[in-house]
Design goal:
With 158 residues, the chain is of the alpha/beta class. The chain contains 4 helices and 8 strands; from the N terminus they run H-E-E-E-E-E-H-E-H-E-E-H. The longest helix is centred in the middle third of the chain and has 10 residues.
Length: 158
């Protein structure tokens, strides 16, 4: 918005969003607060959304919630029923399958971050026939969009 207001040229560098493949069971939402109306009580849920969004899942009472973090947390999980799991990405599809089976994961919740490095959890969910609740990407501002660093550098050179 600032670039448009000041007539400053700009470009958005963004990973391509994920699209479901054959065998995926994805439910799309706009806001994480919608998850409580989708995932049944008693379910075990992997929140693949990062710890920054945890407060948006406080309505998931009655479910077991797992959130993976890279570094040991400084505080306990912010509400009852949740726990942190420590792990450093990237994770292979095989590692995600083992993790999901070991923890009895029944649902996966993610944002449509796109990219290949973190897609393994979605491929593992497909293999295990797990449903995925995916937050849609926010509406992008009017702008030129490039999908790779190389394209961004070429735009800058031009």
């Amino acid at each position: 918005a600032a670039c448009l207001k000041t007539d400053t040229r700009h470009v958005i560098l963004q990973r391509r969003g994920w699209k479901p493949k054959n065998g995926d069971d994805w439910r799309f939402i706009a806001q994480f607060e919608e998850v409580a109306g989708i995932i049944p009580q008693g379910a075990t849920v992997f929140l693949g959304t990062g710890r920054q969004t945890l407060d948006q899942f406080s309505g998931l009472k009655g479910r077991r919630l797992l959130c993976r973090v890279i570094d040991p947390p400084q505080r306990p999980f912010p509400f009852e029923g949740g726990e942190f799991v420590i792990g450093r990405p990237p994770f292979s599809v095989e590692e995600e399958v083992v993790f999901f089976k070991r923890e009895n994961i029944e649902w996966l919740v993610v944002k449509n971050a796109g990219g290949e490095r973190s897609r393994s959890k979605l491929d593992a969910a497909r293999m295990l026939r797990l449903p995925v609740v995916m937050q849609k990407r926010p509406k992008r501002p009017e702008s030129k969009v490039v999908w790779s660093v190389e394209d961004c550098l070429a735009w800058l050179d031009a």
